[in-house]
Structures are given as C-alpha cells and as structure tokens.
Amino acid sequence: MAQYGKRTRAAREAFAGKENLTVEEAVTLIKTNANAKFDETVEIAMSLGIDPRHADQMVRGVVGLPNGTGKDVRVAVFARGAKADEATAAGADIVGAEDLMEIVQSGKIDFDRCIATPDMMPVVGRLGKVLGPRNLMPNPKVGTVTMDVEAAVKAAKGGEVQFKAEKGGVVHAGVGKASFDEAKLVENVRAFIGAVAKAKPAGAKGSYMRKIALSSTMGPGVTVSVDNANAE
C-alpha cells in the first residue's frame, strides 16, 4: 500500500502545475508516469457545451482509431441463418437469436460490442433496459444495426470506438495503451477529437469543446489545450 501511495505521489508531483498542454506533451507526460504493473489504458474525457437531455444536442458517433485500442474486443451478434454464419466467420465471439436474448436477460453480458441485423431488432428491443445503460444497444447511426455483419464485426475488432455524451455533456473513451508509441497515441487522440468535433449537433450553442483531459488508468489527469487538440 505504501509503495502504491509513493508512486501516486510521484505522479502527482510530475503533473503539478501542468495544464493546457499540447496533445504531444500530454501523451509524453502520461506515458512517462504510467507505472502500474499492467498495460494501462490511455483515456480521454471531453466536456462539451451541450445538454444531452435535448434531442438536438445529443452527441454520439463512432470512430475508427488508426492504431486500434490495444484491447481485445468481444463482439456479440444477433442474427439468424446465413448472417449468423457470416458473423461467426468474421470473428464474432457470441452469435445467436432468442437464445442469446435469454442469456442477456439472465444478466450474463460477456461482450463489449453488440451488433444486430435489422430483422432481429424486435428481439433485441426487449433488452433495451439491460443493454441501454451499458451503451451496448445496437443502433443504425453507429453501424451496429446492419446487414453487413462481416464489416461491422471486423470494424469492432479492429479498433472502432463508439462515443456518446453522458449526463453533463461529457464524452469519454479509451484511445490506446500506455505501451503504444507516442506518435500512435497522438494520432489516435487527434482522430477521436476530430470525430467528436464533426459530431457537433445543430442545437449546440456557444463554445462546443470546453475542456479536454487525458489520463492513464491509474494516473492523474492533465488538461489539453482545446485549440491545439482540434488543430488539423
């Protein structure tokens, strides 16, 4: 416990007084101080000038990170017949129909992404109260309700990240691992920020991107200059 406290204090001292850094500076700081005994995830949190309670201010979307997430994503697919076979061949971890619905209803959710063919949505719709709060409900807007299950499964496995504004207008996601090269992390961070920028809703008023912070799983956070982060 003392060792953990010592490491935490050292990290906080390294971060002290540093704010509104460039993406490159923030990534370097985070990588240098990610000293846990596992490969920490680099996480981004963005505070947006929106009120997601209003439909015209909701922010959601999907982005393919150029260098992947470094995470083994488990994918479930609701499909029947040939489409179920297609999903299995593409690498889906769990494939089913009513049988999969019963598994999810029982509380066993052993997957990170859920995909469905359009004809399965009446079945999947019964799981809204279970999948919705976990941000796992298939949605055509982010490509998870589709007949092209092969492409959807491969995208999910290959580093595609979904995002959705939560209460308070905050969007967050994992954008890589601390073991990634700095240049690859920077590229992933900028790709994510760019996707959120493009998802700006029509109802957003005033300043859209208010604050951006990066951190590792066990480390402190550091703010990133909004102007630098959103630079092309």
Could you describe the 3D structure shown?
- This protein has 232 residues and is α/β, with parallel strands linked by helices.
- Helix content is 34%, strand content 21%.
- The chain has 9 helices and 9 strands.
- The strands form 3 sheets. A 4-stranded antiparallel sheet has the order 7-1-8-9.
- Helix 2 crosses helix 8 and helix 3 runs parallel beside helix 7.
- The longest helix has 17 residues, at 182-198.
- It starts with a helix and ends with a helix.
- 35% of the residues are buried.
- The mean pLDDT is 91.
Short overview:
With 232 residues, this protein is α/β, with parallel strands linked by helices. The chain has helices spanning 2-15, 23-32, 81-90, 98-105, 121-124, 128-131, 149-157, 182-198, 226-229, and strands at residues 41-48, 60-64, 75-78, 94-96, 113-116, 160-164, 170-177, 209-216, 221-224. The protein has a four-stranded antiparallel β-sheet. A three-stranded parallel β-sheet has the order 4-3-5, with helices on both faces. A two-stranded antiparallel sheet has the order 2-6.
**What profile does the largest beta sheet have?**
4 strands, antiparallel
Strand arrangement across the biggest beta sheet: 7-1-8-9
Number of helical elements: 9
The helicity comes to 25-40%
What share of the residues does DSSP label as strand, in percent?
Answer: 15-25%
> What's the total count of β strands?
9
Q: What is the typical, i.e. mean, pLDDT? A: 91
Based on Cα principal axes, name the global outline.
globular
Terminus-to-terminus distance: 44 Å
What structural class results from the helix and strand content? alpha/beta
Written as H for each helix and E for each strand, in order along the chain, the element string is HHEEEHEHEHHHEEHEEH
